[in-house]
Amino acid sequence: MHQAFHWINEPAEWHNADGKLSVITDSNTDFWRNTWYGFDRFSGHIYATHVADDFTFQVKICAQFNTLYDQAGLMFMSDEQHWLKAGIEFNDGAPAIGSVLTLQNSDWATGIFTGNPGKFWLRLTRKGDALRLQYSSDGQHWPLLRLCYFPPGPAKIGVMCCTPERQGLAVEFLDIRLSPPVDKALHDLS
Q: Are 86 and 49 in contact (CB under 8 A)?
């Protein structure tokens, strides 16, 4: 499944060569809709491709998160009001693993990341109207991070990064893979 990727909110500074996408985040970029904070933001950087059917998307992310809300990971979206982002986000004084599902309003689920937050992997599988989100600290063991409903239909999948409180987070995205859906049992962690 070789697909053409394109930018949504292209950063001022980025480079893509030898299988590595390098990005430096622009100032005050973010993704959020309404809940708790009462604002809408869709200014973060997304490098994505179109998907119409079921798939598995996998990526390795490298970054040094150290400022409140620094974040990088993946983004799946049908439009600015329907999306799922996931990855490492710096909050409560530490890098945490988490996801935000937005179906008109955002939620946020976050937890302690026990691996090295400077290098981690994410995998998203779409099957019909379900999304299976997994993460890994070694690229071998894939615990479930989230299982959720998402409206069926055409969408985009890719990588994302943003820095709501600053600019200048350097992120590397490696081994970006889009394939037919991995159809393993839900609790198969391979």
A: no
**Taking the CB of residue 38, how many other CB atoms lie within 10 A of it?**
7
Tally: H helices and E strands in the chain: 0, 17
- For the chain, the domain total comes to 1
Residue that is written with structure tokens 């622009």 in the block: 26
Q: Nearest Cα to 123, choosing from 106, 101, 102, 146?
A: 146
Nearest to 10 by CA among 36, 43, 32: 43
Strand 82-91 to 170-179 pairing: unpaired
Q: pLDDT (tens digit, 9 = 90+) per residue, 116-129?
A: 999 999 999 999 99
Its pTM stands at 0.96
Mean pLDDT of 101-115: 96
Q: Judge whether 189 lies within some domain.
A: no
User: Could you tell me if residue 136 is inside a domain?
Assistant: yes
Q: Which CATH number characterizes residue 51's domain?
A: 2.60.120.200
